[in-house]
Amino acid sequence: MKYIVARPINGITINPELEVLLDDNGDVRMFDSEEQALSSLTAAGVGPEELRHMTIMESCGTCCKCGSPLFRSLSPGYTFQCFTCGEDFYQFEQDT
Question: Mean pLDDT over residues 76-93, rounded?
Answer without folding.
Answer: 92
